[in-house]
Protein backbone atom coordinates (compact mmCIF):
# COMPACT_ATOMS: atom_id res chain seq x y z
CA UNK A 1 0.00 0.00 0.00
CA UNK A 2 2.85 2.37 0.81
CA UNK A 3 4.36 1.86 -2.64
CA UNK A 4 1.02 2.53 -4.31
CA UNK A 5 0.65 5.79 -2.41
CA UNK A 6 4.19 6.76 -3.30
CA UNK A 7 3.56 6.03 -6.98
CA UNK A 8 0.37 8.04 -6.97
CA UNK A 9 2.24 10.92 -5.39
CA UNK A 10 4.50 10.82 -8.44
CA UNK A 11 1.39 11.27 -10.60
CA UNK A 12 0.25 14.21 -8.47
CA UNK A 13 3.67 15.80 -8.81
CA UNK A 14 3.72 15.24 -12.57
CA UNK A 15 0.33 16.93 -13.03
CA UNK A 16 1.44 19.87 -10.90
CA UNK A 17 4.58 20.23 -13.01
CA UNK A 18 2.34 20.44 -16.09
CA UNK A 19 -0.15 22.80 -14.46
CA UNK A 20 0.99 26.08 -16.02
CA UNK A 21 0.98 24.51 -19.50
CA UNK A 22 -2.47 23.00 -18.95
CA UNK A 23 -3.85 26.29 -17.69
CA UNK A 24 -2.63 28.07 -20.80
CA UNK A 25 -4.30 25.50 -23.08
CA UNK A 26 -7.61 25.60 -21.19
CA UNK A 27 -7.74 29.39 -21.12
CA UNK A 28 -6.80 29.66 -24.79
CA UNK A 29 -9.59 27.28 -25.78
CA UNK A 30 -11.97 29.20 -23.51
CA UNK A 31 -11.08 32.48 -25.21
CA UNK A 32 -11.63 30.96 -28.67
CA UNK A 33 -14.89 28.98 -28.43
CA UNK A 34 -15.72 26.81 -31.43
CA UNK A 35 -19.02 25.10 -32.18
CA UNK A 36 -19.60 21.39 -32.78
CA UNK A 37 -17.60 19.87 -35.66
CA UNK A 38 -15.68 23.14 -36.13
CA UNK A 39 -13.23 22.80 -33.21
CA UNK A 40 -10.15 23.08 -35.44
CA UNK A 41 -8.09 25.31 -33.14
CA UNK A 42 -8.99 23.42 -29.96
CA UNK A 43 -8.12 20.09 -31.55
CA UNK A 44 -4.74 21.47 -32.60
CA UNK A 45 -3.98 23.00 -29.21
CA UNK A 46 -4.81 19.76 -27.40
CA UNK A 47 -2.75 17.53 -29.69
CA UNK A 48 0.39 19.70 -29.82
CA UNK A 49 1.69 18.69 -26.35
CA UNK A 50 0.82 15.05 -27.04
CA UNK A 51 2.86 15.07 -30.22
CA UNK A 52 5.73 16.72 -28.36
CA UNK A 53 5.56 14.00 -25.67
CA UNK A 54 5.83 11.19 -28.23
CA UNK A 55 2.20 10.13 -28.56
CA UNK A 56 1.17 8.76 -31.94
CA UNK A 57 -1.49 11.22 -33.06
CA UNK A 58 -4.07 10.39 -35.73
CA UNK A 59 -6.23 13.30 -36.86
CA UNK A 60 -9.58 13.18 -38.60
CA UNK A 61 -10.48 9.73 -37.23
CA UNK A 62 -13.97 8.29 -37.86
CA UNK A 63 -14.29 10.68 -40.79
CA UNK A 64 -14.55 13.68 -38.45
CA UNK A 65 -12.13 16.51 -39.23
CA UNK A 66 -11.74 17.65 -35.63
CA UNK A 67 -11.62 14.21 -33.99
CA UNK A 68 -8.30 12.68 -33.00
CA UNK A 69 -6.76 9.62 -31.37
CA UNK A 70 -3.46 10.04 -29.52
CA UNK A 71 -1.85 6.77 -28.40
CA UNK A 72 1.07 5.88 -26.17
CA UNK A 73 1.97 2.34 -25.21
CA UNK A 74 4.17 1.57 -22.24
CA UNK A 75 5.00 -2.05 -21.48
CA UNK A 76 3.00 -4.46 -23.68
CA UNK A 77 0.32 -6.66 -22.20
CA UNK A 78 -1.64 -4.12 -20.20
CA UNK A 79 -5.16 -2.80 -20.80
CA UNK A 80 -6.22 -0.12 -23.24
CA UNK A 81 -7.61 2.90 -21.42
CA UNK A 82 -9.26 5.82 -23.22
CA UNK A 83 -9.30 9.30 -21.70
CA UNK A 84 -11.99 11.31 -23.46
CA UNK A 85 -11.47 14.92 -24.48
CA UNK A 86 -14.39 17.19 -25.28
CA UNK A 87 -13.75 20.70 -26.61
CA UNK A 88 -16.80 22.09 -28.43
CA UNK A 89 -18.58 25.18 -27.13
CA UNK A 90 -22.17 26.39 -27.02
CA UNK A 91 -23.63 29.11 -29.27
CA UNK A 92 -23.52 32.60 -27.78
CA UNK A 93 -22.34 31.60 -24.28
CA UNK A 94 -19.13 29.77 -25.22
CA UNK A 95 -17.68 27.22 -22.80
CA UNK A 96 -20.68 27.16 -20.48
CA UNK A 97 -20.32 23.39 -20.16
CA UNK A 98 -16.60 23.44 -19.37
CA UNK A 99 -15.32 21.44 -22.32
CA UNK A 100 -12.16 23.55 -22.31
CA UNK A 101 -11.43 21.94 -18.93
CA UNK A 102 -12.58 18.44 -19.93
CA UNK A 103 -10.30 18.20 -22.94
CA UNK A 104 -7.32 19.66 -21.15
CA UNK A 105 -7.68 17.43 -18.08
CA UNK A 106 -7.64 14.32 -20.30
CA UNK A 107 -4.47 15.53 -22.01
CA UNK A 108 -2.91 16.41 -18.67
CA UNK A 109 -3.65 12.98 -17.22
CA UNK A 110 -2.07 11.20 -20.19
CA UNK A 111 1.02 13.41 -20.20
CA UNK A 112 1.50 12.96 -16.44
CA UNK A 113 1.25 9.17 -16.67
CA UNK A 114 3.85 8.98 -19.42
CA UNK A 115 6.13 11.34 -17.54
CA UNK A 116 5.79 9.53 -14.19
CA UNK A 117 5.70 5.94 -15.47
CA UNK A 118 7.21 5.55 -18.95
CA UNK A 119 7.06 1.74 -18.52
CA UNK A 120 3.44 1.65 -17.40
CA UNK A 121 1.89 -1.67 -18.51
CA UNK A 122 -0.87 -0.51 -20.81
CA UNK A 123 -1.91 1.52 -23.79
CA UNK A 124 -3.19 5.02 -23.06
CA UNK A 125 -5.37 6.76 -25.64
CA UNK A 126 -6.52 10.35 -25.52
CA UNK A 127 -9.65 10.25 -27.66
CA UNK A 128 -10.58 13.64 -29.06
CA UNK A 129 -14.37 13.55 -29.30
CA UNK A 130 -15.92 16.59 -31.04
CA UNK A 131 -19.51 17.75 -31.12
CA UNK A 132 -20.89 16.55 -27.80
CA UNK A 133 -23.25 19.50 -27.62
CA UNK A 134 -24.75 19.14 -31.08
CA UNK A 135 -24.05 16.22 -33.36
CA UNK A 136 -22.89 13.34 -31.19
CA UNK A 137 -19.25 12.88 -32.15
CA UNK A 138 -18.84 9.92 -29.79
CA UNK A 139 -21.81 8.18 -31.40
CA UNK A 140 -20.13 8.35 -34.80
CA UNK A 141 -16.83 7.21 -33.31
CA UNK A 142 -18.57 4.25 -31.65
CA UNK A 143 -20.23 3.32 -34.93
CA UNK A 144 -16.82 3.42 -36.61
CA UNK A 145 -15.40 0.99 -34.04
CA UNK A 146 -12.96 3.32 -32.26
CA UNK A 147 -13.97 2.00 -28.83
CA UNK A 148 -14.19 -1.69 -29.72
CA UNK A 149 -10.75 -2.55 -28.28
CA UNK A 150 -10.91 -0.16 -25.31
CA UNK A 151 -11.08 -1.82 -21.88
CA UNK A 152 -12.31 1.29 -20.06
CA UNK A 153 -13.16 4.88 -20.95
CA UNK A 154 -13.22 7.93 -18.66
CA UNK A 155 -13.65 11.67 -18.61
CA UNK A 156 -14.34 14.22 -15.88
CA UNK A 157 -16.88 17.04 -16.22
CA UNK A 158 -16.86 20.31 -14.25
CA UNK A 159 -20.07 20.89 -12.32
CA UNK A 160 -21.62 22.43 -9.21
CA UNK A 161 -21.27 19.15 -7.33
CA UNK A 162 -18.65 16.38 -7.18
CA UNK A 163 -20.25 13.05 -8.14
CA UNK A 164 -19.16 9.79 -9.75
CA UNK A 165 -22.45 8.01 -10.56
CA UNK A 166 -24.81 10.57 -12.05
CA UNK A 167 -27.15 9.18 -14.69
CA UNK A 168 -28.34 10.61 -17.99
CA UNK A 169 -31.37 10.22 -20.24
CA UNK A 170 -31.47 8.81 -23.74
CA UNK A 171 -32.30 11.57 -26.19
CA UNK A 172 -32.66 12.53 -29.83
CA UNK A 173 -33.04 15.85 -31.60
CA UNK A 174 -35.53 16.28 -34.41
CA UNK A 175 -36.31 19.05 -36.88
CA UNK A 176 -39.96 19.37 -37.91
CA UNK A 177 -40.50 21.10 -41.27
CA UNK A 178 -43.98 22.18 -42.36
CA UNK A 179 -44.95 22.98 -45.95
CA UNK A 180 -48.07 24.98 -46.78
CA UNK A 181 -49.09 27.37 -49.56
CA UNK A 182 -48.34 31.08 -49.71
CA UNK A 183 -51.14 33.59 -50.22
CA UNK A 184 -52.05 37.13 -49.28
CA UNK A 185 -53.36 36.88 -45.74
CA UNK A 186 -56.01 39.58 -46.27
CA UNK A 187 -57.09 39.63 -49.91
CA UNK A 188 -56.95 35.89 -50.65
CA UNK A 189 -56.53 33.87 -47.43
CA UNK A 190 -58.71 31.07 -48.84
CA UNK A 191 -55.95 30.29 -51.35
CA UNK A 192 -53.36 29.71 -48.66
CA UNK A 193 -52.37 26.83 -46.38
CA UNK A 194 -50.65 27.95 -43.20
CA UNK A 195 -47.51 26.08 -42.32
CA UNK A 196 -47.48 28.13 -39.12
CA UNK A 197 -50.87 26.81 -38.05
CA UNK A 198 -49.55 23.27 -38.58
CA UNK A 199 -46.56 24.10 -36.41
CA UNK A 200 -48.63 25.67 -33.64
CA UNK A 201 -51.03 22.73 -33.64
CA UNK A 202 -47.98 20.50 -33.19
CA UNK A 203 -46.93 22.35 -30.05
CA UNK A 204 -50.47 22.07 -28.66
CA UNK A 205 -50.70 18.38 -29.52
CA UNK A 206 -47.34 17.64 -27.93
CA UNK A 207 -48.39 19.47 -24.79
CA UNK A 208 -51.51 17.30 -24.66
CA UNK A 209 -49.27 14.22 -24.61
CA UNK A 210 -47.34 15.29 -21.52
CA UNK A 211 -49.86 14.08 -18.95
CA UNK A 212 -49.62 10.60 -20.49
CA UNK A 213 -45.82 10.43 -20.29
CA UNK A 214 -43.63 9.04 -17.51
CA UNK A 215 -42.14 11.51 -15.06
CA UNK A 216 -38.65 11.21 -16.54
CA UNK A 217 -39.74 12.10 -20.09
CA UNK A 218 -38.64 15.49 -21.37
CA UNK A 219 -39.87 17.19 -24.55
CA UNK A 220 -38.65 20.68 -25.36
CA UNK A 221 -38.60 22.67 -28.58
CA UNK A 222 -38.32 26.06 -30.23
CA UNK A 223 -39.68 27.67 -33.39
CA UNK A 224 -36.75 28.37 -35.72
CA UNK A 225 -38.85 29.80 -38.56
CA UNK A 226 -42.38 31.10 -38.17
CA UNK A 227 -42.94 32.90 -41.45
CA UNK A 228 -41.69 36.03 -43.19
CA UNK A 229 -44.44 38.64 -42.87
CA UNK A 230 -47.74 38.83 -40.95
CA UNK A 231 -49.72 39.61 -44.12
CA UNK A 232 -48.43 36.56 -45.98
CA UNK A 233 -49.70 33.06 -45.23
CA UNK A 234 -46.50 31.18 -44.29
CA UNK A 235 -45.61 28.44 -46.77
CA UNK A 236 -42.68 27.10 -44.74
CA UNK A 237 -42.17 26.90 -40.99
CA UNK A 238 -39.76 24.93 -38.84
CA UNK A 239 -39.28 23.82 -35.25
CA UNK A 240 -36.48 21.98 -33.49
CA UNK A 241 -37.13 19.64 -30.60
CA UNK A 242 -35.19 17.44 -28.22
CA UNK A 243 -36.94 14.36 -26.86
CA UNK A 244 -35.64 12.46 -23.83
CA UNK A 245 -36.57 9.28 -22.00
CA UNK A 246 -35.04 6.85 -19.51
CA UNK A 247 -33.54 4.61 -22.18
CA UNK A 248 -33.42 4.08 -25.93
CA UNK A 249 -36.37 1.66 -25.94
CA UNK A 250 -38.65 4.12 -24.14
CA UNK A 251 -37.31 6.94 -26.31
CA UNK A 252 -38.47 5.07 -29.42
CA UNK A 253 -41.94 4.70 -27.93
CA UNK A 254 -41.98 8.44 -27.21
CA UNK A 255 -40.80 9.49 -30.66
CA UNK A 256 -43.47 7.34 -32.31
CA UNK A 257 -46.18 9.21 -30.39
CA UNK A 258 -44.65 12.64 -31.00
CA UNK A 259 -44.04 12.09 -34.70
CA UNK A 260 -47.69 11.08 -35.17
CA UNK A 261 -48.78 14.39 -33.66
CA UNK A 262 -46.53 16.22 -36.12
CA UNK A 263 -48.04 14.57 -39.19
CA UNK A 264 -51.64 14.74 -37.93
CA UNK A 265 -51.25 18.43 -37.03
CA UNK A 266 -50.07 19.17 -40.55
CA UNK A 267 -52.84 17.11 -42.15
CA UNK A 268 -55.45 18.91 -40.06
CA UNK A 269 -54.79 22.19 -41.92
CA UNK A 270 -53.91 20.70 -45.29
CA UNK A 271 -50.16 21.12 -44.87
CA UNK A 272 -47.37 18.57 -45.14
CA UNK A 273 -44.74 17.71 -42.54
CA UNK A 274 -41.25 16.27 -42.78
CA UNK A 275 -39.16 15.03 -39.85
CA UNK A 276 -35.38 14.96 -39.82
CA UNK A 277 -34.01 13.01 -36.88
CA UNK A 278 -30.51 13.36 -35.44
CA UNK A 279 -28.36 10.68 -33.86
CA UNK A 280 -29.74 8.88 -30.81
CA UNK A 281 -27.86 9.55 -27.56
CA UNK A 282 -28.08 6.40 -25.43
CA UNK A 283 -28.77 6.40 -21.69
CA UNK A 284 -25.71 6.38 -19.47
CA UNK A 285 -24.34 3.04 -18.28
CA UNK A 286 -22.11 3.85 -15.32
CA UNK A 287 -19.60 1.18 -14.34
CA UNK A 288 -19.85 1.12 -10.54
CA UNK A 289 -16.54 -0.65 -9.98
CA UNK A 290 -14.71 1.96 -12.05
CA UNK A 291 -16.62 4.81 -10.42
CA UNK A 292 -15.60 3.44 -7.02
CA UNK A 293 -11.92 3.62 -7.96
CA UNK A 294 -12.36 7.19 -9.17
CA UNK A 295 -14.13 8.15 -5.95
CA UNK A 296 -11.33 6.65 -3.85
CA UNK A 297 -8.76 8.71 -5.73
CA UNK A 298 -10.79 11.89 -5.30
CA UNK A 299 -11.17 11.23 -1.58
CA UNK A 300 -7.44 10.50 -1.29
CA UNK A 301 -6.92 14.10 -2.45
CA UNK A 302 -9.32 15.34 0.22
CA UNK A 303 -12.22 15.96 -2.19
CA UNK A 304 -15.66 15.11 -0.84
CA UNK A 305 -17.79 12.99 -3.18
CA UNK A 306 -21.56 13.62 -3.08
CA UNK A 307 -24.42 11.32 -3.98
CA UNK A 308 -26.18 12.04 -7.28
CA UNK A 309 -29.72 13.45 -7.25
CA UNK A 310 -32.31 10.74 -6.62
CA UNK A 311 -34.71 12.29 -9.10
CA UNK A 312 -34.39 14.77 -11.96
CA UNK A 313 -31.53 17.14 -12.51
CA UNK A 314 -30.02 15.18 -15.41
CA UNK A 315 -29.49 15.76 -19.10
CA UNK A 316 -28.04 13.65 -21.88
CA UNK A 317 -24.61 13.02 -23.39
CA UNK A 318 -23.13 10.95 -26.19
CA UNK A 319 -20.89 9.21 -23.66
CA UNK A 320 -23.96 7.06 -23.07
CA UNK A 321 -23.19 5.39 -26.39
CA UNK A 322 -19.61 4.70 -25.30
CA UNK A 323 -21.02 2.97 -22.21
CA UNK A 324 -22.87 0.54 -24.45
CA UNK A 325 -19.52 -0.56 -25.95
CA UNK A 326 -17.11 -0.64 -23.01
CA UNK A 327 -16.80 0.04 -19.28
CA UNK A 328 -17.32 3.79 -18.88
CA UNK A 329 -17.65 6.53 -16.28
CA UNK A 330 -18.51 10.22 -16.52
CA UNK A 331 -17.78 11.70 -13.06
CA UNK A 332 -18.13 15.37 -12.13
CA UNK A 333 -15.98 17.73 -10.12
CA UNK A 334 -17.26 20.87 -8.43
CA UNK A 335 -15.91 24.23 -9.60
CA UNK A 336 -18.80 26.61 -8.80
CA UNK A 337 -22.31 26.90 -7.38
CA UNK A 338 -23.67 27.93 -10.79
CA UNK A 339 -25.41 25.50 -13.11
CA UNK A 340 -24.02 24.48 -16.48
CA UNK A 341 -25.18 26.10 -19.74
CA UNK A 342 -25.36 29.52 -18.09
CA UNK A 343 -23.23 32.67 -18.49
CA UNK A 344 -22.10 32.25 -14.87
CA UNK A 345 -20.71 28.81 -15.66
CA UNK A 346 -18.84 30.25 -18.64
CA UNK A 347 -17.09 32.59 -16.22
CA UNK A 348 -16.37 29.71 -13.84
CA UNK A 349 -14.64 27.61 -16.49
CA UNK A 350 -11.94 30.25 -16.81
CA UNK A 351 -11.75 31.03 -13.09
CA UNK A 352 -9.15 29.94 -10.56
CA UNK A 353 -11.64 27.45 -9.11
CA UNK A 354 -12.21 26.04 -12.58
CA UNK A 355 -8.50 25.62 -13.23
CA UNK A 356 -7.98 23.98 -9.84
CA UNK A 357 -10.84 21.60 -10.66
CA UNK A 358 -9.17 20.76 -13.96
CA UNK A 359 -5.94 19.96 -12.11
CA UNK A 360 -7.82 17.70 -9.69
CA UNK A 361 -9.65 15.98 -12.55
CA UNK A 362 -6.38 15.27 -14.36
CA UNK A 363 -4.93 13.72 -11.19
CA UNK A 364 -7.98 11.53 -10.57
CA UNK A 365 -8.08 10.38 -14.20
CA UNK A 366 -4.38 9.54 -14.15
CA UNK A 367 -4.52 7.73 -10.79
CA UNK A 368 -7.54 5.66 -11.82
CA UNK A 369 -5.80 4.73 -15.07
CA UNK A 370 -2.76 3.72 -13.03
CA UNK A 371 -4.98 1.47 -10.87
CA UNK A 372 -6.34 -0.33 -13.92
CA UNK A 373 -2.93 -0.79 -15.51
CA UNK A 374 -1.15 -2.07 -12.42
CA UNK A 375 -3.78 -4.15 -10.58
CA UNK A 376 -5.25 -7.00 -12.68
CA UNK A 377 -7.87 -7.73 -10.00
CA UNK A 378 -9.26 -4.19 -10.21
CA UNK A 379 -9.34 -4.34 -14.00
CA UNK A 380 -11.05 -7.72 -13.85
CA UNK A 381 -13.81 -6.39 -11.56
CA UNK A 382 -14.46 -3.52 -13.94
CA UNK A 383 -14.59 -5.76 -17.01
CA UNK A 384 -16.71 -8.43 -15.33
CA UNK A 385 -19.30 -5.85 -14.34
CA UNK A 386 -19.49 -4.59 -17.92
CA UNK A 387 -19.70 -8.07 -19.43
CA UNK A 388 -22.47 -9.05 -17.01
CA UNK A 389 -24.40 -5.90 -17.88
CA UNK A 390 -23.96 -6.68 -21.57
CA UNK A 391 -25.28 -10.25 -21.15
CA UNK A 392 -28.30 -9.03 -19.20
CA UNK A 393 -29.09 -6.40 -21.82
CA UNK A 394 -28.86 -8.93 -24.64
CA UNK A 395 -31.18 -11.25 -22.72
CA UNK A 396 -33.71 -8.45 -22.26
CA UNK A 397 -33.65 -7.60 -25.96
CA UNK A 398 -33.91 -11.22 -27.11
Automatic annotation (TrEMBL):
It holds the Pfam family M20_dimer. It comes from the Bacteria. GO terms for molecular function: dipeptidase activity; para-aminobenzoyl-glutamate hydrolase activity. This is Peptidase M20 domain-containing protein 2. It comes from Brevibacillus nitrificans. SUPFAM superfamilies: Bacterial exopeptidase dimerisation domain (SSF55031), Zn-dependent exopeptidases (SSF53187). Belongs to the peptidase M20A family. NCBIfam families: amidohydrolases. GO terms for biological process: folic acid catabolic process. Residues 174-262 form the Peptidase M20 dimerisation domain. GO terms for cellular component: cytoplasm.
Amino acid sequence: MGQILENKQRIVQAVDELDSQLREIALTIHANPELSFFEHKASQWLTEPLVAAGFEVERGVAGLETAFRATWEGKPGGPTIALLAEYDALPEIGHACGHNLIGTSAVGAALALKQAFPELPGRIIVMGTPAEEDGGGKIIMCEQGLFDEVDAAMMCHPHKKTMVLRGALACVDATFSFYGKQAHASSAPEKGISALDALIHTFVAINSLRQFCKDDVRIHGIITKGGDAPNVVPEYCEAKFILRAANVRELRELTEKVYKTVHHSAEAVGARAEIKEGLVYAERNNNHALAGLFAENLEAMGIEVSDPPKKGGIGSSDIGNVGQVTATIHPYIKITEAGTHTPAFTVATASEAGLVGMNQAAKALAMTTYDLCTDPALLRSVREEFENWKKNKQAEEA
